[in-house]
Sequence to fold (733 residues):
Amino acid sequence: MTHKPVALVFIAALSLSTIASAQSILGFTPASSARETEVENKLKSIPTAEEERRQHRIFTQEPHIAGSKRNNELADYIAQEWKKQGLEDVVIRRYDVYGTNPKSASLEMIAPTHYQAVLREIPIAGDEDSKNPAISSAWLGMSISGEVTAPVIYAHSGNPEDYDLLRKNGISVKGKIVLVRYSNPYSYRGFKALTAQREGAAAMLVYSDPQEDGYKKGKVDPEGPWGPEYHIQRGAMTYDFMVPGDPQTPGWASLPGAKRIPIEEAVSAPKIMALPLSWHDAKPLLESMDGPVAPKDWQGGLPFEYHLGGDRVKAHLKIEMDNGVQPYYVVEGRIRGSESPDEWVVMGNHRDAWVFGGVDPSSGTASMMELTRAFGELKKQGMRPRRTLVICSWDGEEVGLTGSTEWGEQFAAELRAKAVAYINVDEATSGANFHGQAVASLAPMLEETTRTLQDPSGKSLYEAWKETVKREKEEGQQSSQFSSSGVASETLADTRIGSGSDHTVFLNFIGMPVLGLGFEGDYGVYHSGYDDFYWMNHFGDPGYKYHTLMSQLWGVTALRLANADLLPFDFATYASNIREFVNEMARNNKSVILSGARSKDGAESKDPAFTFDLTGIHSAIDALESAGKNLNASLTRKLSSGPIDAQLASTLNHGMMQLERNWLNPDGIPGRPWFKHILYGARYTYAHLELPGLTEAVEKQDWPTAKQQVEILERALHNNTKLLQELNQHLQP
Fold:
């Protein structure tokens, strides 16, 4: 959107972003906007591609799985660097968590022929790191130990409907080994494991089919970005869609000496053996199978017809794990705020990687180190932010979102009182396509911020982002493995936020607004030993231009939240987005809903299939939107008039910070009480799930629970409408 000067004494119907003048920044007075622009320009001049590359090499020199000696050394390195850069209150926090490490694994096909699985990634030409003897063999975090000899059955993506199809073909997997594949759209391997466990399978093998991320997509490493024959996608299978973090401390921090429940009682701890395979190791199993021919959409990229299997293929699988309590370390640093030190803007990236983590997470870690260097330089030049910046290097994200969850649980009360927002960068870049996530109240601010940054293509980042969103919509793509594309109709930002990264505790447990930033591209070496420095320099970001842009974007976004006179929330946009959530749920569940539903043009739905009454919900959304528009207009008038009284600013800002907390239900989602946000949740696949308690009840046709969830949502809408009206009253003459 192009901002044009407008009269600022009216227009309650316009959003905050629309009525901002061309010279203004959302949330800033004219004088503050000028100062902020100067600070941002200085920040953007500090990160360099050379330093991004240098930092990236440090973090990708050796494998550094959570809990490893190398990962702990990197925690010390970050802490020392931050102190040198000028960060304050640098501390390393220890959490004693239930962690996971491999001892050994073997897989042997014993019938109809013999095959010993390699379970390793062979070195590739030109990539010296691929020869590193410290690269682990195949393993999945949180697998249990065990040994089994059993028939192998092909179960496609390992989702519940896949087992239904097997049953229709007379095939039971009870006591057998299921062979499933990583899939696109993304389905979290932990959900595959839980489904196999519920089906009574003895073990699960999960492989990377070339149709999803290999030669069927294009050239493979070292000639291209896609996964080669021996690449293995490691990963955890923790059931963190039930409870993230340490399985033995659900809902409280795993500080040394903390109370722990038995691992047998931990709902997020798997009870099944599992192992990942390259397609090289899966091929002999698949091509030896008999039984019915697999359906067309179960076929893959290997050059033979896939079958479902029966008793013909038998395998011997043995896994020994070293699972138990071990220390994880979170590094925390700050730049204390000059005027409002007890208002926090929190940022984070996880440090632990399955191997080298060229993209995931070390691209983000390198960008974070340049970000903190820039913050330190600004502080040395006397440009301290108004609010406190809190930066964290998380540990154990790959295992179960562990470090961020434990830190968030430890400081939940303080964060609910002080936190403005959390900005997450997991992977800085695997390509050139920007993907920005935000709760809808911050979507206009994020979009405005991207207008001030230049994409390496020469366009503004905003224009490049707009082109990416348009292209992905046309192609019907999904823009992130952690949440299928969910761009709200009125924004570029993806406001459908699932799980799978460190934002989860802040949004779903603490009730903080969150943003997620990342650049994406063709990336077929995820969680493998080939995701390394070589891959990044040849395919992901040669020249480190997008690493540098990420440091700039992350920094400017944080500074706008940290320095705003009045926080740049747009609650009218949020209300409109909630209406979309409700209408989408209705469209997806037509046997249910929707008396009183409103279409985009405001017309009421007359569809007789809609029988579940949401009239009250829509009336409440309308009221929230109206209150949000009125507040937007009042805030803009106040900002345009010059300096703002400190006490008034504090009242308004703390009130706006409270709105996100008001979406929390202390009892949580039915069946998953750790997840407390009534607007945002995640499916077991990690995919986004809006209105989670209500949606899951409707999908189950559990009408008493659905009615209860409607009442909870309606009450929260009314409470937040009242809050916005009270804030608006403070701005009246």
In short: Residues 1-22, 478-489, 594-610 have pLDDT under 50 and may be disordered. The longest strand covers residues 88-99. The two ends are 31 Å apart (CA to CA).
